[in-house]
UniProtKB/TrEMBL annotation:
Protein name, UniProt field: Sugar phosphate transporter domain-containing protein
Transmembrane segments: 45-63, 75-93, 126-145, 151-171, 183-204, 216-242, 249-267, 273-291
Annotated SUPFAM superfamilies: Multidrug resistance efflux transporter EmrE
InterPro entries xrefs: EmrE-like, Sugar_P_trans_dom, TPT_transporter
Membrane topology recorded in Swiss-Prot or TrEMBL: Multi-pass membrane protein
Record key words, sorted: Membrane, Transmembrane, Transmembrane helix
Length: 324
């Protein structure tokens, strides 16, 4: 039986700083690579199996509220794009350098802006465009340090951008407009994603999964990464339900910058002055973007209060006029 220290050393001896350079599913992919697992789509499939098992347990305990009535088309679309998003992200991490992968992530922001305009006629104000441009430039300077071109990797990365943008838009829209909770939406879409990933495995994964060394340590690492994958997907769904698709991307980029700066100040890593300056530029753009959102919220609440006051005054005047 392996001790907790041996399991911990398995992660740490592969250089924790490399994990800190990546976030979310990137770190899970790195953990799987430490176990010598070179099947990215199968890894996504295992993560979704773990997710389905955990959600089924919560549902059996009646911890997931009943879902509101909704046509199956949006749910199927979300399940499909989630499988493409997760599977292609892991394949992209296998064939691309971190820098090229980050460039693809940066391209998600303008894709969301364009998709929301075409889908919902939602426009982004010019100050927000400036803020998002500053954020994108800062993140690019901070993270894109090792661009290496690979044709297959580039095709996979470009194919990942649109599903990633659509999945964020749908997660946010279905929760805010259709009153779905994050767990209820995961419960509805995870089986669809599993089916799609099962079809993708023979198309994108190399052969040899059955001959992999499925010992206790390797299997434990993969299953643990699946639990973390569930928690990350849940937290992302909660964030998308509370904010918007663009704000969620900005939040993810904020985490990337904080990890980079934390790696520098805590572990004395030296990403270079250029990367550090880029991180601070990105955080400045994020701060301005947050300020603009808060300002818009105040303006909206200010417009709603006078309308409520007018309605109350009209009711009071009607009551007064009816009195004998």
């Amino acid at each position: 039986m392996l001790s907790s220290r041996e399991i911990l050393n398995f992660f740490v001896n592969k250089d924790i700083r490399k994990l800190l350079k990546r976030k979310g599913s990137d770190a899970n992919e790195t953990g799987a690579k430490n176990a010598g697992f070179q099947f990215p789509v199968l890894l996504s499939f295992i993560h979704y199996v773990v997710t389905l098992g955990l959600i089924a347990t919560l549902n059996a305990l009646s911890l997931i509220p009943p879902s509101p009535p909704l046509k199956s088309t949006p749910l199927f679309t979300l399940g499909l794009v989630m499988s493409l998003c997760t599977g292609l992200a892991n394949v992209s991490l296998k064939y691309n350098s971190v820098g090229f992968y980050q460039m693809a992530k940066i391209a998600v922001t303008p894709t969301i802006v364009l998709a929301e305009y075409l889908w919902y006629k939602k426009k982004v104000s010019f100050p927000k465009v400036v803020a998002l441009t500053v954020v994108s430039i800062g993140v690019a300077i901070a993270t894109v340090t090792d661009l290496q071109f690979n044709l297959l990797g580039a095709i996979v990365a470009m194919s990942w951008i649109i599903p990633s943008a659509i999945s964020k838009i749908l997660w946010s829209s279905l929760q805010q407009r259709e009153n779905y909770t994050a767990l209820a939406l995961m419960w509805k879409t995870t089986p669809i994603s599993l089916l799609c990933l099962l079809i993708m495995i023979p198309l994108l994964d190399p052969p040899g999964a059955f001959s992999y060394n499925w010992n206790f340590l390797n299997t434990s690492m993969i299953l643990i990464s699946g639990v973390f994958g569930f928690l990350l997907q849940w937290s992302a769904a909660l964030a998308l339900g509370a904010t918007s698709a663009i704000s969620h991307v900005v939040l993810g980029q904020f985490k990337t910058c904080v990890l980079l700066l934390g790696n520098y100040y805590i572990f004395s890593s030296n990403p270079g002055k250029t990367s550090i300056c880029g991180a601070f530029v990105a955080i400045a753009g994020m701060s301005y973007y947050t300020y603009l959102n808060l300002k818009n919220e105040k303006l909206k609440s200010g417009k709603e209060h006078p309308q409520k006051d007018d309605q109350e005054n009209n009711k009071n005047s009607d009551t007064f006029n009816r009195e004998p």
